[in-house]
Specification:
The chain is an alpha/beta fold. It is built from three helices and three strands, in the order βαβαβα. It has a three-stranded parallel β-sheet with strand order 2-1-3. Helix 2 packs parallel to helix 3. The longest helix has 12 residues. The chain is globular. The model has no long low-confidence stretch (mean pLDDT 84).
């Protein structure tokens, strides 16, 4: 089964580059987000990896990142 990777980045061009780079690694399903709110919605499913811009807009970013961290 593929790895599931969240890429949360505000800048669309940077996000597209990261998506391309991660997909070149092989069997990876990539989920994209442009804000911390979108990242939290995407993270409701199991993730194996999260690449997150710490300057994402949309709420309390540090609290959002803590929510993404597995328990």
């Amino acid at each position: 089964f593929p790895l599931r990777c969240l890429i949360a980045e505000t800048q669309a061009l940077v996000r597209a580059g990261l998506v391309r780079l991660v997909r070149e690694l092989g069997d990876v399903e990539v989920v994209e987000a442009g804000s911390i709110t979108d990242a939290l919605v995407a993270a409701r499913t199991d993730l194996d990896l999260a690449i997150v811009d710490v300057a994402l807009p949309g709420g309390d970013r540090l609290a959002g990142l803590r929510t993404l961290r597995p328990m």
